[in-house]
Structures
1.
Amino acid sequence: MAQQDLLPLVKNTIAVSSGKGGVGKSTVAVNLAIGLAQNGAKVGLLDADVYGPSVPKMLDGVSKPKAEPGKITPLEKYGVKFISMALFTDQNTPVIWRGPMASRLIQQFISEVEWGELDYLLVDMPPGTGDVQLTLVQTVPLTGAVVVTTPQEVAVDITTRGLKMFEQVNVPIIGIIENMSYFLCPHCDKRTDVFRHGGGEKAAGTLSVPFLGGVPLDPALALAGDAGNPVVNLKGSKRTASSEAFAKISSELVAHIERVKDKSGKNGENVRIAPKEVKGDGSNMVIEWEDGLTSKIPFEELRVKCPCATCVDETTGQRVITPDRIQAGVSPQAVNQVGRYAVQIKWSDGHDTGIYSYNYLRELSESLAKS
Ligand code: ADP
């Protein structure tokens, strides 16, 4: 099944990620989800942070979701449907085992949770940019990603690593949010830049991605989260500067999601031409591209041009596999879509580690057409 078809009723799937833990990524994800719902959108929140799943606590989720084979009913609070890995995993499980569990669970959440129609599904990602995160990014059909940072973390390189991961798999960056931006004294309203303020905005500028806004360091935010009533939901005089910041960023987010979708639609910087159909004709892979071009790549040529680390030396870029080592008549046994950007081919000679990005396939087709 094509990845895009996995969540047919979900209009936008947004990853909320961070270069490291503890920057307030889950707090941001929960408050943005509620903020979007307050603006009238249908919203879901998938808590995939298997290392520190705090979403159920923030949403006061004491109840267990109803789970029958193949059908999980999400919980719902403040107009947000949500599901969390914490509700399905034992938090005493050693951290090292949680990565593989995350991959399996997210697939289950995507195919079995009854999300219904949603305008936005936010995915609270595990922090960092390792294999677990990369697998999740490839599993979920993402519209784009939001990166949460703190002023002192920027350390632009940590954020850059996060951005690179999404870029690598062709997921557009919607923008950067700076959390714990500054402290606003509740008594005298004086603003103090506890950490070096402005790092997030500076990083956004350096990396040419939009800055979506800053959220102040707010004791009420932690208290409200712990009490299961996130700040964006506070009413009247209880509202604080962070309640307002989240409301503003939620609206900002909507505009920026539309921006990346516009870009990906045509003349996109992020999504280049994708295939409409990939099939085999006995000895060639036949690709029908969205722009009307049809290309044929002979199976043996495609096998020898496998881009994986076994076939190409990662440091020198030298091809290790050569045409004389390719089995005659080699052909694909399965072609599986990976994220929104590539296919993975399982070959008849048993080789299955090659992920061929659309860009790579297009380049191959074009160079064959020229030769
Ligand atoms: P992450 O998901 O990045 O690991 P969390 O969202 O779980 O981080 O937040 C870590 C802790 O910091 C929580 O106790 C949360 O309440 C607190 N926190 C997050 N953002 C703020 C903020 N802007 N002001 C005060 N406390 C915050």
Note: The mean pLDDT is 85.
2.
Amino acid sequence: MAIAYLNGEWQAPEEAKISIFDRGFMFGDGVYEVMPIYWQQVFTLDEHLMRLRRSLDEIRITPPFSDDEWKKLFAEAIERSGEETAFLYLQVTRGIAATRDHAYPVGVKPTVLVTVTAAPMLERESVVPYRMVTKADFRWGRGDIKVVSLIANGLLKNEALDEGFDDAILIRDGLVTESTLSNLFIVKDGIIITPPESRYLLHGITREHIIGLARSANLPLEERSISEEELADADEIWISSTEHEAWPVGEVNGKIIGNGEGGVVWQSIDTLFQESKKKMLTDAER
Ligand code: PLP
């Protein structure tokens, strides 16, 4: 059952209401996180909390809760939902200010929203490689902050959909940044390559997890810029996000990548990924 926590109150998500003066609504003045829940536990919880703290710090909102308080709140949300496999969505905005002003209001309490909604565990059989198109990355210069204003990501995604693709791979100054909703990896001659962290892309938790898995398995991996030409010439391409885990790309701009299916390196990473999820379960049982 989906559940929402809004500023101290537990409700059905469709019942939850915010003020028209909430700065999240008026200005897109807030940040968010999407966390995966497997077997009633948040996967990579500490990493998500660390990114949340960084996002709040970057937009100058004092964290309304400590990490321990967040953890208690999330545990209660999961318990109330009763869901085994779900997404936990967290949004923190600057709060409610009756005067519409770019200047930050003083002494305002942030708005805190947490929802848990059921999401089936990803099955290998349901993973159909994406057909992608490249597009100029015209988003603002702070893609590293997980802000709620996703207008540019939405525009780019919908342009790609209207053109018959699944999503867009974004290019800034001739280099790949990410997709509209995920980070990106390529494989060339057995080497996994992903763009380095910068202000132009989200520092994805799934990206970081995959890098850790690859390094532990001694798979060669480089964090470095990827040119448009390298992208076109890649043996494998995959995207990564909380919702997609590691997801293969079969085609870019009409050109088939590899054999158009998930490649062998993607398969190894996906296997490691699934094992790392199960490890969370066995660790909890101990
Ligand atoms: N890049 C963008 C633009 C995203 O919106 C997301 C996820 O929403 C990601 C990357 C992947 O981040 P994560 O792995 O933390 O879900």
Note: The chain has a mean pLDDT of 97.
3.
Amino acid sequence: MFEIVTPPEPDKIIRLMGMFAADPRAGKVDLGVGVYRSPEGKTPVMAAVKSAEQRIWAAQESKSYVGLRGDLGFLDAMRRLILGESVSPDRVAAAGTPGGTGAVRQVLETVHRLNPSATVWISDPTWPNHPAIIDHLGQKRKTYRYYDAATGGIDRGGMLADLAKTARGDLILLHGCCHNPTGADLRSDDWREIAAICARTGAIPFVDMAYQGFGAGLEEDAQGLRHLATTLPEVLIAASCSKNFGLYRERVGVVLIVTDGKAAAEGVLAGMNRQNFAFPPDHGARVVQEILGDQALDAVWRNELERMRRAMEGNRRALAEALRAETGSDRFGFLAAHRGMFSLIGATPEQVERLRAEHGIYLVGDGRMNIAGLTQDTIPRVAQAIAQVLA
Ligand code: PMP
């Protein structure tokens, strides 16, 4: 069966991980793969997660199936975390999924089934898995202008002009915060404009929330999404606990659908889970539920998350400062204004390759840098190399 198949191109980030592992140089720096790293360069199990796992281990008496949408306590805790008090629980359908990717997939496949002629509008650029999943499903897609490389900010006029062309039932895929790969986030007036456009054209916002708590703070990062939820009849949300709970490999994600048709939406989501994997993974979801449901653990978690967020902000400031000193210009000042784990540094693929070959500095081919991969020790060297190669 497989003799006639050309294997698909390996994912560029996965390929980069392999190259980094095989690189024998002692001073190599991994700024590629999108995992948080502490100032010591570790991706630790968060303290609250360890405690929750201990409690679960001590108390859990069965690993029998739970339900097609996963554990209802987890879903409710995630609804609160993401939507707060912005909408009544009666208007929110929810289902657990394997990670944020699973949530994105379930949302897009649901739309593909219910409205195969809808166009999904994605930002230029976006996380490569967005177009990959849309294409895999055979749904139509278009891009809207988003990033302005000249300023390191958003091309607001271009974005709003493109989104005004959306049709009823189209999906507008937005990053809830910490835009991947650019690091340039929507401001509150952008969210308000987008809500107004959706109200006018009948397009439905689909918010991918993979980094809540990594941008400006847990509550702040959800404000744009909550504005859409309070003003529009329908909002689709795919959220991930990979980053903010450090539960990457446990695969914890959730689909939330803000709608007046809650019962129908939950039925559709349960059916969609059943077709694709039946029951969503439970362990990580239970860890999240345990943390969010216990005041003391919740406080420990929020503290650690805030420390991580501040460490990334510190890296941004330090790198921007080091680059100012190296280049004598404010060319890279946008790095300090960006939010979350990623920024595009404005390197061509050839420059990215030179950074790797000559300096052992690994970035994704589009010039995306994982800010969390920097440390106080590596920042001067990385700044020197960038200033030299991008001169
Ligand atoms: N959406 C975006 C924009 C992301 O960057 C990621 C993580 N790379 C995800 C979704 C999903 O992450 P995961 O499946 O690991 O939860």
Note: The first strand starts at residue 29 and ends at 30.
4.
Amino acid sequence: MGIVETKNLTYEYIRRDEEGNVEGITRAVDGVTMSIEEGDFIAVLGSNGSGKSTFAKHLNAILYPTEGSVFVDGKDTSDPANTWDIRQRAGMIFQNPDNQIIGNVVEEDVGFGPENMGVPTDEIWVRVEEALKTLNMYEFRKHSPNKLSGGQKQRVAIAGVVAMHPKCIIMDEPTAMLDPLGRREVIRAARALNDVEGVTIILITHYMEEVIYADKVFVMDKGRVAMQGSPREIFSRPEELKKLRLTVPQATLLAYELKKRGLDLPDGILSGDELVREICIRSGKNMELEKYKKALSEFAN
Ligand code: ADP
Ligand code: MG
């Protein structure tokens, strides 16, 4: 069994009037079956309203299925007796770092999670130090979170989850409110947690560029899984992605159009650099790689 297993997961938001009569039903997640192995880096893509957040909230027992089931590390989320264990094993990061940070000092904030779990004080400090170092935020341990950039705050929030030693971290659009540098910092941190610490990462995003390092990508639309595969498999279907209102990277689109016009290029080009490399190899211009790379990267990224 994987670390996360959903079977036919369905969730309906029910709107009621003041008397409690049902006014409307929104089926936000509609029959999602997904199996995620421990140690995987998974990306869940989808445009606004496709059901990503509703899905994510099930993995942390914030919401319970209307139909179907969710197992986290073998535990059924719909059994309240499992909620505590599930929240320790599967940590959650949200869009807005300001809503996730409560401490006045960075290291205090990171310590709250393990403290709530009843970890002994000595060990809390060891965990806080480790977590801050892993997230490259150790030098800020005595700072006030208020003065940090968005990307730094988000990394403090992630450190807070890491200090609880979860097996899995679900990040729901963690970069949506960040500038490009902050976005890079957070994605790099997520990759390092997965690569170095072996933490299972489920990254929810609507930015296509953030999924290129994932082991597997699920694309959601109207509450269902509309596409799934490796990033390369997903990127080789740009027309379908556009129909799902996702912005495909320029380099991917350009490669796709060139290929359609007869150029011999591989499927699913992921970045400007990769496109440049493939074109250079094919045109025998290896010597001028740097020159081409610069010119094309400026254009394609
Ligand atoms: P995403 O995270 O992909 O933007 P959501 O899971 O937030 O998608 O939303 C999926 C659908 O559920 C949307 O149609 C949205 O309007 C609806 N929805 C989300 N939250 C609520 C809520 N609290 N009450 C009613 N409907 C909701
Ligand atoms: Mg959302």
Note: The first strand starts at residue 4 and ends at 16.
